UniProtKB/TrEMBL annotation:
Keywords: Isomerase, RNA-binding. Responsible for synthesis of pseudouridine from uracil. It comes from the Eukaryota. The keyword Isomerase applies. It comes from Sordaria brevicollis. It catalyses: a uridine in RNA = a pseudouridine in RNA. Residues 152-328 form the Pseudouridine synthase RsuA/RluA-like domain. Residues 1-27, 277-304 are annotated as: Disordered. GO terms for molecular function: pseudouridine synthase activity; RNA binding. NCBIfam families: rluA_subfam. This is Pseudouridine synthase. Its EC number is 5.4.99.-.
Length: 473
């Protein structure tokens, strides 16, 4: 008997996610088997959202067993009257057109629960379901720490490398899904502030809609102060440094931003917490390093011998990548930033003071960044210690050259430790009126290195706040 394709159609209210994604790149999980192309496709309803989640821990990483997953989306207005195959070819380019045609023919793409041909004309009210075999990247196995919890709110310390929402290649490997897995499927955590996948630190998860709306309103009205801590290249200047350069998004697809005169207004206050100079290696070891094949490349890297600073960051506005972009512009990018401290993308000066793109055009930067992790290994740590630089280049995520036995999807190697962490941490959130404050511990990378002394905690925000007010006069 021919195997069947298992899909399930649900309304938005039945979707496990509290905020359903309107695109075919979000939906409900199902077990599924793939029918052969020679057999007529059949559709069978199966239990959705399998429980427990298919996690397992290995080599310090949280992994997800590959699984079938069904994306559901209602017909968009611009899709009306267009052929199904045309929609997939034009709007979804993550796979070749041949894949989508085969998926339609096998019944992996159905409309209103029924198999249709590639020439089917989509109508208003149609529900399109697409079943794929999902491969999620592994993330750190570090647990999600709880700083505070009450009847309305959970304040967590998010590990670096873990996305907040299911998005892109990540689904179960996300803060929302991990919390549901740990506490039960009835928990619907509502994130109230945004942290990038690589950024660690304080996040607010509301337990109900009323609490979420209240905190989101506070944050949007700028009655909440937030402080980050970053580890940056070189010796950061003394005193409070205010950067008010405007920021423009030059590539939504790559989430790439730059300082631009025609960008959106942005302001960040910085203050150095500590500076740690480089430790010179013994002369013998240094000679051996210079004899290695890639010694010339290492010697030319700006920042290799500059040491690093731990910097406090107070973002007055909330632009995407604001702290990372402003630090790059000031000439002190976050030391392991895979985008803004990547010399293969930005060149020797890393975009310092390049507000008019005279050193690197937007097109050049986007082209180089798009190649990272595909034709070449992502150089996620531009200023890593010379002794381990070569090792970390090998331990980076890239296409392995192998294909999945089930779906023939190209497989990636595991990400390296440097690709699971950005040395940027959400340290503190507090109400400007002093009614509440939450502070997380300093991350390990911000503590004094072995053999050196330095601060292990951060004081109040008065100096940073005063610098904002003085700069506004």
């Amino acid at each position: 008997m021919a195997a069947t394709v298992a899909t399930s159609l649900v309304t938005d209210s039945e979707t496990p996610s509290p905020t359903p994604d309107p695109t075919p790149d979000a939906g409900v999980t199902h077990a599924a088997t793939i029918s052969s192309a020679a057999d007529p496709p059949a559709v069978a309803i199966t239990p959705c959202d399998p429980w427990p989640r298919p996690y397992y821990i290995e080599d310090g990483l949280r992994r997800v067993v590959p699984y079938h997953y069904t994306y559901n989306t209602w017909c968009k207005e611009r899709w009306r009257g267009r052929k199904l195959m045309e929609i997939f070819e034009v709007e979804f380019r993550d796979r070749p057109a041949e894949y989508y045609r085969t998926a339609v023919e096998k019944g992996l793409v159905v409309v209103n629960g029924k198999a249709v041909g590639p020439d089917y004309v989509v109508k208003n009210g149609d529900l399109i379901s697409h079943t794929t075999h999902r491969h999620e990247p592994p993330i750190t196995a570090e647990p999600i720490g709880v700083i505070h919890e009450d009847d309305d709110l959970i304040v967590i310390n998010k590990p670096s490398g873990v996305p907040v929402h299911p998005a892109g290649r990540y689904n179960y490997n996300s803060v929302v899904e991990i919390m549901k897995s740990e506490r039960g499927p009835d928990l619907l955590p509502r994130p109230c502030n945004r942290l990038d996948r690589l950024t660690s630190g304080i996040m607010f998860l509301a337990k109900n809609q009323r609490a979420a709306e209240r905190l989101v309103a506070q944050i949007s009205q700028r009655t909440v102060r937030k402080e980050y801590i970053a580890r940056v290249v070189g010796r950061f200047p003394d005193g409070e440094v205010v950067c008010d350069q405007p920021i423009l998004q030059i590539s939504p697809k790559l989430t790439l931003n730059r300082v631009r005169a025609n960008g959106k207004a942005a302001r960040t206050v910085f203050k150095r917490l500590a500076y740690y100079p480089p430790a010179d290696p013994p002369a013998k070891d240094r000679t051996e390093q210079l004899a290695t094949p890639d010694a010339e490349q290492r010697a030319q890297r700006r920042g290799d011998r500059e040491g690093y600073s731990i910097v406090r960051c107070l973002p007055v506005t909330g632009r995407t990548h604001q702290i990372r972009v402003h630090l790059q512009f000031l000439g002190h990018p976050i030391q392991n930033d895979p985008i803004y401290a990547n010399q293969k993308v930005w060149g020797f000066d890393l975009g310092r003071n390049d507000a008019d793109a005279a050193q690197n055009t937007d097109e050049d930067v986007m082209s180089r960044l798009a190649r990272m992790g595909k034709e070449e290994v992502a150089d996620a740590v531009a200023y890593y210690d010379e002794m381990v630089d070569k090792y970390h280049k090998k331990k980076a995520e890239r296409m392995s050259g192998e294909l999945c036995d089930v779906c023939e999807t190209p497989l990636y190697t595991d990400p390296g430790a440097q690709e699971l962490s950005l040395w940027l941490h959400s340290l503190r959130y507090e109400d400007a009126n002093g009614t509440w404050s939450y502070v997380s511990p300093l991350p390990a990378w911000a503590l004094p290195p072995s053999g050196m002394t330095g601060p292990t905690q951060v004081g109040g925000m008065e100096d940073l706040v005063n610098a904002v007010e003085a700069d506004s006069i």
